Request: fold
Amino acid sequence: MTGTTRSSDGLDPRRRKLKFRSWHRGIREMDLIMGRFADACIDRLDDGELDELERLMDVPDPEIYAWITGECAPPDGFNTALLRRLRAFHDAPRAPE
Reply:
């Protein structure tokens, strides 16, 4: 079970692949962070944001986790609007599941 709450139906192949990769990061914490963000936002990301998300998928889990949690600052090339959006999404209060 992945935890996803959104079907891939209706998504183009690029978005389907990114959604899948978001839920299969390697450590559960990152699956939940990236996967929930993908479920909520993948269909509204433009091509540039999809490019940025693909770049983030190549970052090792411990590094991106530290950036998202604020443990350390991301390098300039990764301190993008999409990463800030991901951090804000992660920080937003959620309804109980």
Remarks:
- The mean pLDDT is 87.
- Helices lie at 13-23, 28-41, 47-57, 61-69, 81-91.
